[in-house]
Amino acid sequence: MRCRALLLLLPSALAFELPFKPKPRPIPRCVHTPDSRHWRGRSWLIGRFLDLQAQERFGLDVQVDVYEKSDYVGGRSTVVYPYGNASLPELELGGSIFVTANKNLWRASDEFGLGRRDFSDEDESTGIWDGQEMLLSFSGSWWDTAKLLWRYGFLSPRRTENFVRALVDKYLTLYNSDSPKWDSVADLSATFGWTEIVSKTALEHLRTEGVSDKYINEVVDAATRVNYGQDIDYIHALEGALSMAANGAVGIAGGKLPDIREIPQPLACQRLSQDTAYM
């Protein structure tokens, strides 16, 4: 009802605006030559990959206009320097790993010859810490597997895996030529049948899947905190499931993208440090 009331007020509000000329908006500056300060992270890599695909498959000469509120492109997928000292090795701030389900990023790393670092090959162990003691450690041995089964049973891990796999399989259809058309995230969620799971917390939904509270609170909650910094009783079920879909995660070898001058650049106009209200 409140939304309807607001919609009814819109024509009146617009009518009051018509007699007045809108305040002219300054044209954002255009940066034509990308450099490592502006173009970093997976957003640039995927964008460049799709640009090249459009040129090769359809013969399109694509010009990319980028509107960005901050003074660089990439959001959290960027790098920082310790203590602001550019002479020190840079560190990735976010978006540093991806999986095979991230098809565009995976193909882009192949397209540009970027080596991938497979974290599963490293001789490391995983542990669950509850703030006071180490509840469990796992390095992949048969004995560790037995300890996992003893603590959590067989059904809870399997039910969680089945739930996650079903969501990932549905997500992968987005890469098909007959993928669903959608105008908003809500439309896509409804098409995939995800409306219910995004309206419930991961804790609530996994319980309905028959997953034990011990497995939810110790394993899944640990994953949501590491990947998204959110608790299991706060994050919605879809994102909670995705935090468990990081098996086989890789990163760009060396922990960063190469100098972008090594990769052909698009004809691009970057409008940085600008708020964009609408397009």
Biggest sheet details: 2 strands, parallel
> What is the averaged pLDDT score?
74
Rg, please?
Answer: 23 Å
What proportion strand? 5-15%
Please give the share of residues in helix.
Answer: 25-40%
Low-confidence segments: 1-25, 30-39
| Discrete helix count | 10
Structural class: alpha+beta
Form type: globular
Let me know the number of strands.
Answer: 8
Distance between the termini: 29 Å
Number of domains: 2
Sheet with the most strands: spatial strand order = 1-8
Order of helical and strand elements: HHEEEHEEEHHHHHHHEE
Signal peptide: 1-15
GO molecular function: prenylcysteine oxidase activity
Keywords: FAD, Flavoprotein, Glycoprotein, Oxidoreductase, Signal
Pfam families: Prenylcys_lyase
Account of the 3D structure:
The protein is of the alpha+beta class and 279 residues long. Helices cover 40% and strands 10% of the residues. The chain has helices at residues 2-17, 42-58, 103-111, 142-152, 155-172, 185-191, 195-198, 202-208, 213-228, 237-242; strands spanning 63-67, 79-80, 91-92, 116-118, 126-129, 134-138, 250-252, 267-271. The strands form 4 sheets. It has a two-stranded parallel ribbon with strand order 1-8. A two-stranded antiparallel sheet has the order 2-3. The chain has a two-stranded antiparallel ribbon with strand order 4-7. The two termini are 29 Å apart. Pfam families: Prenylcys_lyase. GO terms for molecular function: prenylcysteine oxidase activity. This is Prenylcysteine lyase domain-containing protein. Belongs to the prenylcysteine oxidase family.
